[in-house]
């Protein structure tokens, strides 16, 4: 659920005497009704949150987004939300019959066959290219956030001693969305998501925020009456 007016929503939350807990590492607000979690509000990268006033303020931030699936990666640098550089990287990493990436296959079957060796070399180049581009962004630009979507099984190949990107970097931010196929269009789509207040409602109480939704929908009609 995209929140169109975050200030108005936070006022509504406070008026209902709900509790807010700010998670710095995920840049999100967890919302409680007494001790029950009722939702998570993912905050835009372009806003800061004040824990004392429960208010938000516009800030100038820059970030990297990288999306990785076996054999395909999309990377981009965004200056205050505008994409200034991007790159899509592809590699031959999937065995045709099994549909399994070469990295996963090597854990159980080894690398004796010629086809396996070719795919392994392609896999190594794939991650070398990713690390090279990410290091280039981090060296060239001021980066406040590094938003990513990447399976943890691929982390050993992503976070290397030679690369600039490290797995304990506090700027790392996991994209709150499933990415099926990375590409330039998906990169822009995720960037839009990262600039929008996105409310994830708890599954146990899916109608909890329906009163606020109704209020937002009725607002234009109230304005028309003036």
Helix segment tally: 6
Shape: elongated
Q: Strand arrangement, largest sheet?
A: 8-7-6-9-10
| Unreliable residue stretches | 219-226
Number of strands: 11
Largest sheet: 5 strands, mixed
Spell the H/E element sequence. Answer: HEEEEEEEEHHEHEHEH
Helical proportion, percent range: 25-40%
Protein name: VLRF1 domain-containing protein
Organism: Cyclobacterium qasimii
Pfam families: bVLRF1 (PF18826)
Domain VLRF1: 59-197
Essential attributes:
226 residues; alpha+beta; single chain; VLRF1 domain-containing protein; 28% strand; Nucleotidyltransferase, domain 5
Structural commentary:
This protein is of the alpha+beta class. It folds into 2 domains: 66 residues, no CATH class; 133 residues, Nucleotidyltransferase, domain 5. It has 6 helices and 11 strands. It has a 5-stranded mixed sheet, with helices on both faces. β1 and β2 form a beta hairpin. The two termini are 29 Å apart. It comes from Cyclobacterium qasimii. This is VLRF1 domain-containing protein.
Reconstruct the topology from this structure.
Elements: H1 6-15, E1 19-23, E2 28-33, E3 36-42, E4 47-50, E5 55-58, E6 62-69, E7 72-79, E8 82-90, H2 102-109, H3 114-140, E9 145-149, H4 155-158, E10 172-174, H5 184-194, E11 198-201, H6 210-224
Parallel strand pairs: 6-9, 9-10
Antiparallel strand pairs: 1-2, 2-3, 3-11, 4-5, 6-7, 7-8
Quick rundown:
By secondary structure, the chain is of the alpha+beta class.
């Amino acid at each position: 659920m995209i929140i169109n007016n975050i200030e108005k929503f936070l006022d509504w939350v406070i008026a209902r005497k709900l509790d807010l807990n700010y998670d710095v590492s995920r840049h999100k607000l967890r919302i409680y009704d007494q001790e029950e979690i009722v939702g998570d509000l993912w905050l835009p990268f372009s806003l800061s949150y004040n824990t004392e006033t429960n208010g938000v303020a516009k800030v100038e931030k820059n970030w990297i987004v990288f999306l990785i699936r076996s054999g395909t990666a999309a990377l981009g640098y965004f200056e205050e939300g505008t994409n200034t550089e991007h790159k899509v990287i592809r590699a031959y990493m999937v065995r045709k019959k099994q549909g399994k990436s070469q990295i996963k296959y090597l854990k159980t079957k080894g690398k004796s066959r010629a086809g396996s060796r070719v795919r392994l070399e392609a896999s190594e180049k794939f991650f070398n290219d990713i690390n090279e581009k990410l290091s280039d962004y981090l060296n060239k630009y001021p980066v406040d956030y590094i938003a990513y979507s990447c399976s943890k099984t691929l982390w050993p190949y992503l976070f290397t001693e030679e690369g600039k990107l490290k797995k304990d970097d506090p700027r790392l931010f996991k994209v709150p969305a499933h990415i099926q196929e990375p590409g330039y269009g998906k990169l822009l789509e995720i960037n839009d998501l990262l600039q929008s207040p996105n409310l994830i409602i708890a599954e146990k109480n899916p109608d909890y925020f329906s009163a606020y939704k109704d209020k937002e929908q009725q607002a234009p009609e109230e304005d028309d009456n003036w």
